Amino acid sequence: MTTAVDQSPCRDAAPRIPLGLLATLALLSAVAPFSTDLYLPGFPEMVADLRTSPTNVQLTLTACLLGLAIGPLVFGPLSDRIGRVRPLLAGAAFCVLASLAAALAPTIEVLIAARFVQGFTGAAGMVIGRAIVSDLVTGRTAARVFSLLMLVGGLAPVAAPLAGGFIVGPLGWRGALAVVLALSVAMLVAVLVVVRESHTAARRAQLHEQKAVGGSPLRDLTRRAFVGQLIAFSFSFAMMMAYISASPFIYQNMMGLSSAQYGAAFGINALGLLLSSGLSARLTACHEPHRIAGVGLAIILSASATVLTLAVAGVPAGWLAVSLLAAACGMGLVYGNTTALAQAAAPRASGTASAALGAAQFLFAAAASPLVGLGGAHTATPLGIVMVCAVSIACAGFVATGRPSASPQPIGGWPESPAQLDVSVAISGDPTPPGGAPATRAFAARR
Predict the structure, then answer these.
(1) Domain count for the chain
(2) Is the distance from CB of 131 to CB of 354 less than 8 angstroms?
(3) Is there a domain that residue 65 lies in?
(4) Residue 291 needs a FRET pair 20 to 30 A away by CA distance; which of 48, 102, 112, 383 works?
(5) The model's pTM
(6) Cβ-Cβ contacts under 8 Å for 430 (sequence gap 6 or more)
(7) CA separation for the pair 251, 346 (Å, rounded)
(8) What is the Cα–Cα distance from 410 to 381, expressed in whole angstroms?
(9) DSSP strand E in 122-238: where?
(10) Is 432 a domain residue?
């Protein structure tokens, strides 16, 4: 039996994630940035309402970010041990409760505690969502999915403060946190309705058997291929967060733009990031993720070096805008592909690998962001130094991985529920791997 498919080199026959699941994964990746940024315009109002200081109000954001950094280290390994759905449901449910507590918090102390729990439990969606993708697809398909998710991840941090400005005006800061509560409820409902177990008991049993032969799955996390891609992923993200932290001072203090003009300029760069992420998703049909990520890192390194050169030379600040836009565009080619390459390098511990990516992502970003302000509000030199150093480390990690071998297939076949996958693959012959299923499968499993 042979199922005809397009054999064009720009089409790889591979499992595809159905639209409903893809939309749910996008929601999981969006809740965290919306929860951190949506209420930012309400900070001045919070100081008066809660009778506290601006520093304490800032701690509500810090607490959420701390939770987002620690949460992956718990939910990722847990999902490798007991499956994806139960930890994801638990995280989503507790995130709803924490969001309710935050929206109704009577004191700043309660709000800080609720925001930490909100970040900690909300991280489950982010880290387990990546692991689910790695369970179901690999190689170019995984890179395409991660690039598409980057569209949402890149839009949310920009859209959230803008939307928050419209929400805080009529509804106040509690109204903004109520919207976060609504998003958390939507996440819980989507997980209940759409997500099925991808890390099945059979798959976990197979991994346990392989452990006796190949050692602990955690050894995958020490492989050069994984560590290098983790470094490339996290330090390129740190570069982007350094730019975001410095952007108000660059565009407003140095370029003299108004708040509205700054929003427009920031939006242009965000649009560049979104467009390049979409381009990356299309390019993965014809090109290997490793090559696309390498081009993106080269663009970022060139843009960062230009920022530093222009800052040291003291040229008019307006010239920085072009280089910053180029850096944002290059990031769209890096994020999804390095994520896919890192996850593919640790197929036996997808959840823990995703946890390591999430923790490193926020850790290095938190370390890099404050450094850009060391020289004051009227110089871009610290930003240029941070960008060049971060991207140089990212490139070193990427180069150290070497060229990846053929992408491994997801371990243990497919989920217990056939609704999880929509696969169209050509069959040639009937080779049978362990488990009795054809090595190349042709089925269309639809809900």
Answers:
(1) 1
(2) yes
(3) yes
(4) 383
(5) 0.70
(6) 438
(7) 41
(8) 45
(9) none
(10) no
